[in-house]
Amino acid sequence: MSGKASSSQSSVGLSRSSALSHVYIQYPPLRCNVPGSRGLFYDDGNKSILSPTSDQVFSWKTVPFSPLVAPTSDSISEGPILSIRYSLDAKFIAIQRSDHEVQFRHRETGETFSQRCRPESESILGFFWTDCPLCDIVFVKTSGLDLFVYNSELKSLQLVETRKLIVSWYVYTHESRLVLLASGMQCKTFNGFQLSSAGVIRLPRFDMAMAKSEANSKPVLAAEDINIVTVYGRIYCLQVDRVAMLLHSYRFYRDAVIQQGSLPIYSSRIAVSVVDNVVLVHQNDAKVVILYDIYADSRAPISAPLPLLLRGFPRFNTSVSQSSREDSGSSEANVVPDNEAVIYGDEWTFLVPEFICDVANKLLWKIHLDLEAISASSSEVPSVLEFLQRRKLEANKAKQLCLAIARTVILERSPVPMVARAMDVLVTSYSHSVKTGSYLKGIKSEKTSPCSVPHVSSPRSGADASASRVDALEKSVKHASAAGVDNEYASDSEENPSSEPPKTNLSDLQIFDGSNPLNANGSEEQEAQLTSPAISPEEMYSFVFAPVEEEIVGDPSYLVAIIVEFLHSANSEKVKVHPNLYVLTVQLLVRNERYAELGLFVINKIVEPSKEVALQLLESGRQNFQTRKLGLDMLRQLSLHHDYVLFLVQDGYYLEALRYARKYKVNNVRPSLFLEAAFASNDSQHLAAILRFFSDFIPGFQKTSDHNTYYRILNEMNSSIAA
Amino acid sequence: MGMSAATTAAEGIKFCIFDLRRGQQEGQELDKILFFFPADLPFSAQLSVIGLSEGLITFTRIFSPAAACEVIEAERHSHVFYEAEPDIWMVMVVEKNESEAIWRIDALRKVLKEVHSLFLMFHGSIRTLIEKEPAGGLIRSHLYPFIMDYLSACQKRSLLDNCCWDFLLGKKLQLPSFRDCLKERGTVQMLTVSREAAIEVQSLVRVLESFAGNTQFYSLILFQDLLVSTTLSPVDTINLFTYAVLRLTPRALSSGVSSWSYLRKGSTTSNVATGSILAQSASVSEQNFRSQDTSPPGGVNSHHIARPLQPDRWSKGKDGFLVTDIWGAEASGSTSATPTIWLQQTEERVYVCAYQYRSLTLILLVPVASILNGEQGVLVVKQQILENASLKMFQIEEKLSKGWAGENAYHVSGYRYLLVDGDRDVSRASPPGKVTTLTKESLLALSKVREEVDLEKGRMEHDNAGQEKDLEVCIRAKNNAWVIARITKGKELYMVLEKANETVLYASDAVEKFSNRYCNGAFSLD
Fold first, then answer.
1. Pick from A568, A606, A659: which is nearest to B525 by CB?
2. What is residue B302's DSSP assignment?
3. If pLDDT is split at 50, 70 and 90, which confidence band does A217 have?
4. In the sheet where A178-183 sits, what is the strand order?
5. Inter-chain contact B490–A629, Cβ cutoff 8 Å?
6. ∠ CA(B336), CA(B337), CA(B341), 5° rounding?
7. N or C end: fewer C-beta atoms under 10 angstroms in chain B?
8. Strands (DSSP E) along B345-402, which ranges?
9. Tens digits of per-residue pLDDT, A446-480?
10. Element of type H or E holding B505
């Protein structure tokens, strides 16, 4: 997506409601077309699309996603290809040639070897590479799992462990490191293993729910009915129940699998994607997509079902912006095949987590959320803000939207309780992000992405990522990593008991690779640099309160009410508020001449004391001397003795100032200030007292010109009195 | 409650209100009198008091046109003057030289001021009422019950309270004497709250304000008898606070069942007796007024004179709102009319909605002009309070109750003090129960010192406009107690240290310590 162009486009699209949608794919797609291709394979371990020909395999990186990425190629030997995956260290290519054989090829040397199974008793269902310390590659066979390590001396695989199970079919995603093995008549009994860098975790066997159709025929669960999704660091399985027309969800804990409830479905063909922790349920027949934010208990969709939008397609996009027109022009001739624009075509395959592969046209689309459209579709401001605050992928856009929403609700003078909840959402989110360190991470380290939490044994997460972490992060994050909490959301579950099933000793299966790639770098998008949409109190002041204060018309007491609510939230979250906000509060109260209330604010320390506030009180106190006194008192209580003395002199209390200066040893005030003040009051006794004071306490004062001048003046005053 | 045993006979204390613009022709002098206590004094005696006062006023005006006399000290009497409104004077004559009747003039003037302020709040200005009905019946019929209710406001602020809120016991007036020198009338007492609680209170205040829409509602929140928050101007805050403590706070409401009720009963009967003469004259003129009234015959209520200071007329309804029939009942008769008061700052007439949850009292003031359909609109506001504010009130009450150390919360051991912040009209003092432990000598000494300080304050105000002077008095009383007064930057501190060391250094250290711990160092500037 090319940054600004698309956002401006989307705002145009919004106003023309014909193209209303919450999810879109951006034209142009990644074209994975090579002559002689034998199909497309998705290697989710390496996040690349593979297209083998008879003697070569082409590989396109999908992360960072760019339609212009050039493929790399490797030569392979001829033969049938059932599946193909690069090893995680990218040294080997593994190709499943048949039910009984997987062939390995060393990419540099070109050496090959094969691993076979006993053809009479078992067949290979598939395989995947793993970063589990126990093994390098796992074969899933009808008789169970075989775990192998690669022995570089022998140049062959060595079996390290076998798990004997009957397997009908399996589902694996590298993202979750979770393999689910289906068995039984209806294929609804599951064994699960998580093979992560922390070792192998075996999940308890569980059955999935299947409604019976009216006849005796029992439906059989198919692999495409099972979707493993990871959101907010939790692993779920979404299972389609075609008879009940429900999508059942299960959450995986280390020692339990718990059904979480069901979502209705409206299509016989369902696909599930996850974009930025939002679950997208594609209702293929209806050609609409429903969004769920499975964070709290709520199973309500974020918004109404809406179609998936193809953006920037040259044929019907007349308002296309300059930049994307250039894009399309350069990549393709003017003739664009119509079938490319078919949404939810039969040939679409949904890849974990957020890609759509158009097998027929050899295209790869990346799914994007339209945060603006989503936030515009709901009037429930607090929940929209909550939703936006949870977004990581387009953190900057989410943040800007949050700021805009906050400004709007205040300018529209929405009911105070509603704005209060909105403020609370923002402050709580900020406080949370500071605790987990993601806020500082976003500010300080520009190139690490939030979810890519490196762990030591991952070969590719590399030293660079962890190094950047060390210099960038605060202690809290180090603590987190030291404790082995690899994902910030892991701590979420403890803080939100409401979203937790009744049992308390459950701990989530952890994820060892976020939805973001480990090797994402700053090149993807500017926006990706900001990793958290959290808004600091300083930003709340600069981008919400200050601009709103300029724009808001009429009685400013409404704004004071909102600031009070903001302070309320900040106080309960122990978030420090910028003094500028207090200064603004003082200004607003003064503008309404609500001096008595201002006094309450200051005395009860709702407005926390600071030099800025004190100076504002002194300034505002020009119309109201009680307020000025509050400012003076604040200076004194802050021990800003020098300023205090200066203001005392300024107000004519020069004798008091002198006594105070003596008591608190304020030595750097110019004597001339006091002398001038005493002279101005035309009181010779005072002038004499001050001269005497400085003569006594400042060595050498009697030799200064000040002393001489005022001594002469004093004599003149006295002689005139005498005369 | 250590009531001072002054046997001030009715002729001992006199209290009158008169209008200099009236009755200037011979034979019409009686017209001047708007109020006189005791009412059964012969008119000739009343006129002689007023004649003397008028003479003094006229005389002193020659020297000081803007501010005529404040007090005349005669051999046996003190005459305390207060010009409540232009040419409308309140004069109190008190007898001197009795053992307990040792008055501080400024305290007496504050009584006059308070009566008038409260009258303004409930009935508007005296002048307006006079102009409404030049015969004077209207104003008299308002003033008489009002002031008698005020004087008989048999209200104790606590069981241990030594303060004489009940001015009238039988025929005896109990005025603030030297025993009340650690109190300051015309100030509010505030609850010290944590920042967290203060923010929650402000949040509640803003929610209440948001009910108003385009107009402005005002609110006052009390915890026990202490002010927590106000959005009113200082003068209105003082008035409403005074009234709330007298009649609305939980303690004021529960006083009806206390053992003190017999006193009040006694005083009301005597009211009837003493007030009969003036009441008769008032009723006559009231009838005149009625006959002249050209307004459509609206009903009984049009001439119903509310007596807001009448005791035991408020009660807490089931819904938490405080109700009273003082302002009469609606035509339907089922519900009482919502009370209304005048705000001095904005000269608005506002409905008073008082809601109480345990120790927390919320008073919401709704401008009459902002509500089109009268009582119906008030009901809507009340509903809003129940729906949107009551939950917050519960939380605040809980929080404040947790942090509340009880009656003696502001006791500082070893000290008997009064702290007045003149800029904000706030005072705080040692709890009355602790003040009673002081000896009479100490109290007399402090009263004397305060008298002097009052004079000095008056002089300072006169001499240095805009400049505040500091003042420090520290004396050793006959009983070896230290009596201290300090004024710094508009803040006043009065203190009695009885069991103190004999050096003045000790006394000044004690002040310094107190100042640093309880006044943010306001009195330890040098």
1. A659
2. G
3. confident
4. A169-173, A178-183, A189-196, A199-207
5. yes
6. 135
7. C
8. 349-357, 360-367
9. 433 343 333 333 333 333 433 333 343 333 333 33
10. helix B504-518
Q: For residue B250, which phi and psi values (nearest 5 degrees)?
A: -50, -40
Instruction: Supply the Cα-derived Rg of chain B in whole angstroms.
Output: 24
**Cβ within 8 Å, pair B206-A564:** yes
Contacts of A215 (CB under 8 A, 6+ apart): none
Instruction: Label residues A624-635 b or e (16+ Cβ within 10 Å = b).
Output: bbbbbbbbbbbb
Nearest-CA distance B423 → chain A (Å) = 6
Class of domain B195-269+311-403: alpha beta
The Cα–Cα gap between A487 and A453 comes to 7
DSSP-based three-state secondary structure for B274: helix
Q: What are the tokens at B182?
A: 């650690």
Where in B293-410 does DSSP place strands (E)?
A: 314-316, 322-324, 340-342, 349-357, 360-367
| pLDDT, tens digit, 9 for 90 and up, residues A63-84 | 888 888 889 999 888 889 999 9
CATH topology of domain B2-180: Beta-Lactamase (3.30.450)
CA distance B23 to B33: 9
For A580-639, give the DSSP string: HHHHHHHHHHHHTT-HHHHHHHHHTTSS---HHHHHHHHHHTTS-HHHHHHHHHHHHHTT
Count of alpha carbons within 13 angstroms of residue B477, beta-carbon side: 23
Asked whether the beta carbons of B252 and B245 are under 8 A apart, the reply is: yes
Burial A509-534 (b: 16+ CB within 10 A, else e): bbbbbbbbbbbbeeebbebbbbbbbb
Is residue A452 a contact partner of residue A514, using CB atoms and an 8 Å limit?
A: yes
Enter the pTM of the model: 0.81
Name the minimum distance, in Å, from the CA of B253 to any CA of chain A: 28
CB proximity B230 to A under 8 Å: yes
B465 has a chain A CB within 8 A of its CB: no
Domain boundaries, chain B: 2-180, 195-269+311-403, 416-518
Phi-psi region of A432 (alpha: psi -120 to 50; beta: other; left: phi over 0): alpha
Tell me, rounded to whole angstroms, the distance of Cα A247 from its chain centroid. 27
Q: Give the strand order in the sheet containing A234-241.
A: A226-231, A234-241, A246-252, A257-264
